[in-house]
Automatic annotation (TrEMBL), chain A:
InterPro entries, per database record: Clathrin_H-chain/VPS_repeat, CNH_dom, Vam6/VPS39/TRAP1, VPS39/TGF_beta_rcpt-assoc_1, VPS39/TGFA1_Znf
GO biological process annotation, one example: endosomal vesicle fusion
Subcellular localization, as worded in the UniProt entry: Cytoplasm
Protein name (database record): Transforming growth factor, beta receptor associated protein 1
Transmembrane segments: none
Swiss-Prot/TrEMBL CHCR repeat ranges: 563-727
From TrEMBL, chain B:
Keywords in alphabetical order: GTP-binding, Nucleotide-binding
Name under which the protein is recorded: RAB20, member RAS oncogene family
Keyword Flavoprotein: no
Superkingdom classification of source: Eukaryota
Source organism per UniProt: Callorhinchus milii (Ghost shark)
Family: Belongs to the small GTPase superfamily. Rab family.
PROSITE patterns: RAB (PS51419)
Stored InterPro entries: P-loop_NTPase, Rab20, Small_GTP-bd, Small_GTPase
GO molecular function term, any single one: GTP binding
The keyword Transcription is assigned to this record: no
Amino acid sequence: MSIKAFELVPALERTLLIGDKTWINIECIECCGRNLYVGTNECYIYHFLLEEKTSTSGKLTFIATKQLHKYLGLKKPVNEIKAASALNRLMVLCDCSVNLLNMINLEPVPTGAKIKGVVAFTVNENPVTADPFCVEVCTISMKRKTIQIYAVHEDRVQLIKEVSTPEQPVALAADGYFICLALSTQYIILSYNTGVSQDLFPYNSEEKQPIVKRIGREEFLLAGPGALGMFVTAAGISQRAPVHWSEDVIGAAVCFPYVVALDEEFVTVHSMLDQQQKQTVPFRDGHILQDFEGKLILATSKEVYVLVPLPLENQIQDLLTGRRVEEALVLAKGARRNIPKEKFQGMYRRILQQAGFIQFGKLQFLEAKELFRNGQLDVRELISLYPFLLPSTSTFMRSHPPLHEYADLNQLTQGDQEKITKCKRFLISYLNEIRSADVANGYKEDIDTALLKLYAEANHDSLLDLLVSENSCLLVESAPWLEKHKKYFALGLLYHYNSQNEAALQLWMNIVDGGLEDTTRSDLYEYIIDFLSFCSDHELVWKYADWALQKNEEVGVKIFTRRPLVESQTIGINPDDIINYLHKYRKAVVVYLEHLVFERNIQKEKCHTHLAVLYLDKVLGLHSQSRNGSEELTSARNNLKNLFRHSQLYRVHLLLGRIKDTDLYVERAILHGKLEEHDKALEILVHRLKDFQAAEDYCLWNSDGKDPLCRQKLFHMLLALYLDPAVTSDALVMAGVDLLNNHAVEFDAVRVLRLIPDNWSIQLLSPFLGQAMRKSFHSKCMAEVALGLARSENLIYRYTKVKSRGNAVALSGKKVCQVCRGMFTEPVFLRSPDGALLHTHCATKSSSPSVTVQTYANP
Amino acid sequence: MMKPDVKVVILGDMNVGKTSLLHRYIEKRFQDTVSTVGGAFYLKQWGPYNISIWDTAGREQFHGLGSMYCRGAAAVILTYDVTNRQSLSELEDRFLALTDTAHAECIFAVVGNKADLTDECAIVQTSEVGEEEEVSPSTLHKQVFMEDAIYFYKQIIKYKMLEEKDVPAAEKMCFETSAKTGYNVDLLFETIFEVVVSFVLKKRVNPPQTVVLRHSLKTKRTKSPCCS
């Protein structure tokens, strides 16, 4: 629990003051700047100069040099000395009066000014009057229950106020208008301005010596009951918890953040921040403990010492060395107001960082993280604890003096693997959190590289996320590490991120080919294809296309088919080059051509013909293998037929030539259809294939979207085939009848009636006849409607014409031409439909085409 | 040092569990405490407000400090031990007078601690089950009942010469708690903080009389019982 906050340093040795005159006792002390005054029981005042010396080893010593001594001639002890340096005066209480002496020569002021009848006095260090050449002194008067306030000038004193107290005062301290008094049975706060007093708490001054110390603006330290050091503000309330010192405290003083108390055997030091006792210094026969302008002076009756506070930084360091993080932080925070802001911030950050490492050492990661973050730790300090994580190129040096005592993680954990794993997990989460924060600025490479190494080592999924997102991993540092941990796929990603796509590809291909082992992705081949299809480096694409296609043509060809469209239109790969290249890959070239023809709708005869030829080759190939159509053949033929039907671009004659001698009749029929050789096509369908449904369908899709007459023509052609007297058969006749009955409206009924044999019964053809009649009647009705509409339209036009011609147009000399604004000088003029009159020559010039002009001849 | 907006003081005889109550609230655990010396002080952040909570010493020796701790307080928690009738009487006899220095609009709470020793319902562990030893079944005789606390609360109002309608209801401000099990502890402090925060707001609207000397003297004159 202890800390070294103060050091006891002798200031005035026995020999200097007392020598062999053992009857001399120190009664009181004043220290002002370098001046040390000592008052004795023999009525002497001694004046010393106190020099502070720091030896090379850093040890502080004081050297006192005697200046003067002065006998006051009263044979009474000197009770109290106070210096008023602004006035160059000493105020000395001796024999119940305060005398003014010259600070330097110790002579009384010539006017002999003094305050008489004083039991005790104090200087108000925060006086209300702002006169710099005046000191406010409060005294306990010899008059019963009275205190007096004086203004002390260079050579005169002036009573300002006298206030009576409820009981006899024993000790006092002053701040502003407030006087804190120890009365015989209690402490009170008195405002001498208003005379109002406020009880603080009871206290028996006969049992124990009261202590009243001003410790700061409007705050006092009092000796309370039960060995308490109580803090009280001028408002009469306590804002700090009391400290618990010893029963027989003689003197107390505050040197922030510590309360120092003197008893008969010890000097004790308590922190005002946590009320704990922090230091105990053995000190016998202590007599006086006072603070003078922040300097703590301690005296026995024979010697004088200084309690030198150790720098707060050292104290905090000591606490940190003792791993007392909480206390160190409390002290550091408490010290804020005593240290310049800039210095404090740097110091405090460092303390937080150190505290962070202590918590880290205890594997208290949550606390450590908070401290590191608040302390804005250079994260490399932390990374450097982990062996091999910082790049070897890093210029980082750990801060000096070091923030912690650990060489590395192994030392910290003493090789405990479980702890090491925990530490690594912590680092991962910490680095992850600060990656994007400001503190990462400048060290992004170190952070990301370290993170990559940790991920790779721990087989962490986030490795890939790191590599595919924006990162600053150092290639030279990361590549060997990934290789070492067999993270080849990740290594490829790293190469790719560093624009070394070829290296990445080779690595990945090696994995696919089984040369390297890495199971990160089971679909790595597809991944490579994907990668190549979006790769804008065409050279690379060509270089590795062979590999991709050799693995699997259908998948490999995606390199070309999946390329973004925008690219291929501008600077992309020319489709012809691709087709040429793909020659040796029969499946791939088909897929690619299909892609061009069906998906991209490329309107190039060459592509369509090429695809048709390839389809045909396939069909022929399969056809020759198996007579009885396999499923594959059917599908191949469907593809072929589909292309034949829907594409308009392939070279029909070429293909027709190819299949002329085969039995691909349907295909042939389609090709004939393309050449408008419907008779040939239908003949194949009807006579060769005897597939009447196909023939019917042929008529329908061939005339689809064309003139109805075209369809009629086709149906008649088909009917003629069915009824061809040269090749009559029942089947054909029946097909003909069905055709007529099912598609009655498509036929010209008159022509049909002429065609059909006379022996057909009405019964047989009744559906046809019914529909034909209906159609004919419908046409007649429609024609009548059209006629009626046309007539009425005609009537409207005629009405308009009559109306516009009906009225006479008067032309007078006053009328002007609407175009040139000139008078009409000739009888010939023009009148526009809206009634405007124009010159004939103006009308021809007039550019307005919307105006239809009618010429009128003057009657 | 952070300046607290408002002050809450816990009073009561020694060994009724003042420190344990506060400790339970702040740290969420029960811990054996030693007798408080002088007083202790906590700052609690409650929304935007800093509330200082003074844990006072119950020992007779420190009794004299009570008035000073209570000076300007916005709330006083008067604590007794439900198994000890005397501890309630002490509140009336010794501690109530200490609150004369509190703020004129100070609110009061009457709290009977150690309810786990007498009431089954208070034994329910609110947290960290199993960390503490089994709570012994109610063996001790309950000496103070809720009605007694409510009666005392009404006595306080009389003593302060206030109207019942102007202060929070007795049912709201009387609690039976257990620092050991945590029973009602959060409720106690949170109820008080909520009332007290409205007090701060009012204080902000009407700037406080900064010269507390004059102020408290005045209240003393008006509030002290006339028979003195």
